[in-house]
Structure formats: C-alpha cells, structure tokens
Amino acid sequence: MIERVISVPAQPFHDQRPGTSGLRKRTAIFSQPHYLELYLQAVIDALGNLRGKTVVIGGDGRYHNRPAIETAIRMLSAAEVSRVLVGRDGLMSTPALSLMVRAKNAYAGLLFTASHNPGGPQGDFGVKLNLGNGAPAPERVTEAIFQHSRRLTGYRTLDRVAIDLAKPGAQLCFETLVEVVDPVTDYARAMEKLFDFAALEKLIGSRDFRFRFDAMNAVTGPYAREIFENRLRAPVGSVVNAVPLEDFGGLHPDPGPSYAKDLFAAMAEDTGPDFGAASDGDGDRHVVLGRDLAVAPSDSIAILAANHQAAPGYAKRVNGVARSMPTSRALDAVAKHLGVPCYETPTGWKYFTSLLDSGRIVLCGEESAGAGSDHAREKDGLWAVLYWLNILAVRRMSVGALVRTHWRAFGRHAFQRLDYVGLEEDGARAMMQDLRARLRDIEGRRVHGLLIDTADEYSYVDPVDGTTADRQGIRIVTADHARIVYRLSGTGTSGETLRIYVERLVREGDMLDASAGRLVAGLPGAAALLADIPRYTGRSAPDVVS
Ligand code: VG1
Ligand code: CO
C-alpha cells in the first residue's frame, strides 16, 4: 500500500525554545505523544519551502534515536523534501553532519543528540538544527522556531513508512529518496587533507608512544577505529568503549575529569598511555591528556593556534582566531604574538560561524572542551585530537612538555569552571537579577583581598552581520586582571545550572606547576560572596569543578 500525507491535529507545547545548542529536554518529555512531531513541524515551518531540497539526518545513537529519525523522515517527506541523507543505523557525529551538509549542498541538517548529557529513558534527548552552511541555526531562526511552535494546531506526516536504517543505499519513502550513508569514510578523508597522516602513523606506531582514545560508548567509536586503528595503525584495542550504546553504558558521555574517570585513572598508572583522549556523546568536544596532566580546554585552543605551522592544513593561513567570552584569555596572548585579531563571542558555537563564513577567523574554541576550524561549522573532537598528535609528531615533545613550554612563553591562564547544578529556577534567576542591579556598587569594592576594578554584563554585536545578543554573562575583573564570569546554562533539562568561570594569569616559574585550583584560590569564594550564592540557592559549594 502506498503512503499518504496526513494532518494530525494536536495542541502546541509552550516550552520548545531552543537553548545554547538546540532543544534539549528529558527523554520522557520528548517521547510524549506529539512532542517531537510538533517541534519538527515548527522547524519545517521556520525553514520555509522545503520542496525539492536535500536534508541530512543523524544522531548520536542515544535511546529514542531511531524512532525520532523515522518520525523526521516521514515529516520531511510530507514536506516534499526530495532527498534525505541519513547516517547508517541513524548514527552521525555533529562535526560529520556539518561536513556532510556542506559537501552535499544540503539545505539543512537535523541531529538527534543531547551531547554530553546522559541518555536512556531517564536521561536526556535533544534536536540540533544546522543550516545549509553546516552551522548551528542562528538565534533569528531558533526564535522563529519557538514562535511557530506556540501557534501550531497540528503537524503533517505520512501515515506509514518502512525505512531500513541498517541497509546502505537508496530507498524510496513516498516521493523522497532516502539514502543511508556511511559518514565515517568522508570524515576520515577530510581529516587526511588537514593533517600529516604519514607523520601521525610514525608517531602512533612508535614503540615508545602508547595511545588511547576513549569513545565513551558514544558516536565517535566507529570514526576513531577507522582513523586511529585502520588508517594510522594504532594497535587494535587503542580505541576503547568504541561501540555506540543507547545509554552510553550508563555513563555521562562527558570527557571531563568527573565522568571520563577510567581514562584519567589509566593515565596515572605506571604503564599507562603517553597520550590519552576522549570525546563526548555527539563527537564535538575533546579532552587531551599527557602522562602527568590533562590539558585545560582554554589552553588547548591556545596551543593549537600557537602551533598551527605544524599542521599542513593550517600552516601560514591563520589570519584570525576567536573564543567564547568565558574561555580564558590564553588564546588572546597567542593572537597578539601572531599579530592576528582575537574575537570574543557569546557561549555557543553558532556565534563563531559568521566569523568563519566571512573568512575572518580560521580557528576557534570554548572552555567547555570545544575547538574547531573553518573545515566545518561545528566544533570537532577528533579533529582536535589529530591536530594535537600532529603537533607532537613535529615538535617531538610529550603533552606535558608542550604545555609547559607554552606556559613559559605565554604565561599560564589558570582557569576553573564551577557548576551549581539543578538549582531552583526562581532563586537562580533572582540571584542573577540582583547581581546585575548591583554591578555599579561592586566596582571599587574589596572582597577577600581582591580589589574589583570593573563589573559589567556582556553583550555582543556580530561584526559581520550586526546581529546582537544581550545578557550573555556577568563579568567581574579585579585590579590585577583576574576575572570572574557568571552565567546560567542554556543546555540543562531541569532547573537552572549556574556556571562560574574564574581565571588568573600566572607568570612565575615555580608557580606554573601548581594545580589550577591553587592558582585561582580566592576567586571562587569571592564569586560566591559577591553574588550571595548561598542565600539565593541554598548551596554552599558547587557540584562540579572542571
Ligand atoms: C554548554 C557549553 C557551551 C557549548 C554548549 C553546547 O552550554 O558551556 O560552551 O557550546 O554546551 O555544547 P551551556 O549553555 O550549558 O553553558 V555540546 O557539546 O552540548 O553541543
Ligand atoms: Co557535544
């Protein structure tokens, strides 16, 4: 029997406003009747006429991925999309999707992921939308989606569909050609163009270089196996937790010290790896570890920029760089040395993309373990790991030696992020509101021995298209240039998460080896006092420090 387009009446939901990186909710919310369908209808309406267009679809493989992909194919087909490219088994990493949208001249990309948030029926689910340039939808589009979502009276879909996501090749779904593709090969080829794979193979194959990549049971497993084990000939088993699982094996697929515990522990063993790395649920974040230290994400992007001559794809062409506002100013110091501009943007990859599109920058990064370049319009975890390996291959140094050499040359921007998770919404918002109202009075005050020089709220004007973004974080800078930043997360799924970012530049030789916590001492306490955190939130300490 042939499929038919049907209209399904349904009441709109009023909470479908995308955050920092798409719409993210508890799986239980996403899987209630009509919830996903109505959101996708709002996306389709905001995108305009999709007739005859190509759309790329993927996901990080978390629980609910397959039904969500089938729903999306049905609805896109009802919207007369002529071609859908979907990752085999419904899998595609965020950076691979960005590359594919660009390579295939697609009109948009849809990705089902909640990134580093846990998956499963009790976990989180999400939808990211990319436009034809491969970049996350900008604010103007996400706001239009939200407005559409509130006015919907139903959605259009097909009455039936049978798509086999495991079978590579083309299938017809109503009038849409659905192609099940393997994004791994295309992605690996793109990486081969940017990095010196012969030098990487020599490094990884050498006896005194033990290498481990932890895919955290998430989407990067197949990519990492293909690149590190098949192409670069790392010993089989170098890539661990390489099979994407619906619940990520019960773990948080977040490559920080709190959740990538096995990797951090392995690095500390006598016979542990010389180089360790991991990525997150959807493959856009990275962590890099040496035998005696984990590279702080703010340092990672600075070190990638400082050593761009080592990577063939970047030598002699880094004309500008950018970082998100809360990210440490380590990158600024490198940009100054290179004589190129360093742009500061609000948190979230979407704010980098006009700078990348216009050719103003080549490299950019965020303190939350994201780095990327103009090869894609998303941050890219495996790309960052390969870039690191390429630098080590050329400079013939360990991770620790490279980081310390960098600190000696540029100073160390010691950095910490403190997260207060799951706060009661009214209290957290009132705290920010109250702090905002007192910024003037805070300037000139002395707290815990720190003299506050300036206190303001960050707002952004995009230098390319003039769009603005207000209320992107409260900044406090001390007389000796240390900094405290406060903002509320835009990716959480219950209550509010308060993020506090603290940073202090250290230059003295013997201080360079101290823990970041010791070097920023005093700033977290001052931050809590200035914002009256215990009173507004009932919390005396952060839940996660990274
Ligand atoms: C967090 C990070 C931000 C990152 C975003 C999406 O946002 O701080 O830097 O771009 O997650 O990353 P927030 O609003 O919670 O601070 V991912 O890997 O979820 O796509
Ligand atoms: Co992610």
What can be said about this structure in brief?
The protein has 3 domains: 5-181, Alpha-D-Glucose-1,6-Bisphosphate, subunit A, domain 3 (Alpha-D-Glucose-1,6-Bisphosphate, Chain A, domain 3, 3-Layer(aba) Sandwich), CATH 3.40.120.10; 186-410, Alpha-D-Glucose-1,6-Bisphosphate, subunit A, domain 3 (Alpha-D-Glucose-1,6-Bisphosphate, Chain A, domain 3, 3-Layer(aba) Sandwich), CATH 3.40.120.10; 412-545, 2-Layer Sandwich (TATA-Binding Protein), CATH 3.30.310.50. Helix content is 33%, strand content 24%.
Write a structural description:
There is one protein chain. With 546 residues, the chain is of the alpha/beta class. Helices cover 33% and strands 24% of the residues. Strands 2-6-5-3-4-9-8 form a seven-stranded mixed sheet, with helices on both faces. Strands 19-20-23-24-25-18-26 form a seven-stranded antiparallel sheet. A hairpin with a 3-residue loop joins strand 16 (363-366) and strand 17. The model has no long low-confidence stretch (mean pLDDT 96). It binds alpha-D-glucose-1-phosphate-6-vanadate (VG1) and cobalt (II) ion. The site of alpha-D-glucose-1-phosphate-6-vanadate has 18 residues, from loops. Residues 94, 115-116, 280-282, 284-285 line the site of cobalt (II) ion (CO).
